[in-house]
Amino acid sequence: MTEDEFNAYCAGLTATTHVVQWGDANVWKVGGKVFAIGGWGLREHPGITFKVTPLSFEILREQPGLRPAPYLASRGMSWIQHYDDPGLPDPDLKAYIARSHAIVAAGLSKKKQRELGLPAE
Fold first, then answer.
1. pLDDT tens track of the chain, all 121 residues?
2. pTM to 2 decimals?
3. What is the rounded CA–CA span in Å between residue 89 and residue 106?
């Protein structure tokens, strides 16, 4: 997934905002809460980070090209980073990003979900 594809995909999800922070990272948020981070920098492969369920975390952390997200997973949070080949194919990566958006959105207050036009879970 290219940087432009990542940003276009995240922008297409409901009620998202984008900032560039931590140097050159594309940080995508819903309701002010981070759901995806993409870093291209000078690496050969991008680092795309997203939130997952605890079960997905246990499965994905062992897959080649994926790892517990630096900083986030070390704090006990279920975040995975796609950082190398083979990693996930783009359709699967997009599905995990969409699920991350849903997980984070579900953690917002019901009032905030309504304000943002998000489906209440």
1. 999 999 999 999 999 999 999 888 999 999 999 999 999 876 677 899 999 999 999 999 999 999 999 878 667 789 999 999 999 999 999 999 999 999 999 999 999 999 999 986 5
2. 0.93
3. 26
